[in-house]
């Protein structure tokens, strides 16, 4: 049935587990550097926040996408501010934050565009 959402459905539970995993992975990668998977830290920021935004959209189906994107963007700003103020020897750059925002937009924009396209299906002019 289209539009229904059960809180305990396997997809809802899997979305929440994916969100928790992605959130933990982003926080771990933000503060504890291990061997690099990507050549650039900016690409790593993009990939991490892409996965976090995607998992957040799966876990929080009732939150509007723009609101969800703003929450994740605020989380990215908070992480970057904490990295700047911490005593750990972490290098920070505004390009890391741009990579975070690009990952969020890349994950949520196709979903938002799909919602817009679906709203045109019921167009009385066509």
Could you explain how this protein is built, in words?
This protein is an all-alpha fold. It has one domain. The protein has 4 helices and no strands. The protein is globular, with a radius of gyration of 17 Å.
Largest sheet: none
Total strands: the figure is 0
Q: What structural class is derived from the secondary structure elements?
A: mainly alpha
- Calculate the terminal CA-CA distance, rounded to whole Å: 25 Å
- Number of structural units classed as domains: 1
Strand content: under 5%
Helix content bin: 55-70%
Topology:
Layout (H helix, E strand, L loop, with lengths): L9 H22 L9 H19 L5 H21 L8 H26 L7
What is the structure about, briefly put?
It contains four helices and no strands. It is mainly alpha-helical.
For this entry, give a set of tags:
126 residues; mainly alpha; 4 helices; single chain
């Amino acid at each position: 049935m289209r539009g229904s959402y059960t809180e305990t459905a396997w997809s809802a539970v899997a979305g929440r587990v994916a969100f928790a995993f992605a959130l933990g992975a982003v926080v771990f990668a933000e503060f504890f550097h291990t061997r690099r998977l990507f050549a650039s830290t900016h690409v790593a920021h993009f990939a991490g926040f892409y996965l976090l935004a995607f998992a957040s959209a799966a876990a929080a189906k009732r939150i509007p996408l723009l609101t969800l994107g703003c929450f994740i963007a605020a989380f990215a700003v908070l992480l970057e501010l904490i990295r700047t103020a911490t005593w750990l020897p972490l290098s920070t750059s505004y390009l890391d934050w741009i990579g975070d925002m690009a990952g969020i937009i890349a994950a949520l924009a196709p979903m938002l565009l799909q919602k817009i396209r679906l709203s045109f299906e019921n167009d009385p002019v066509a």
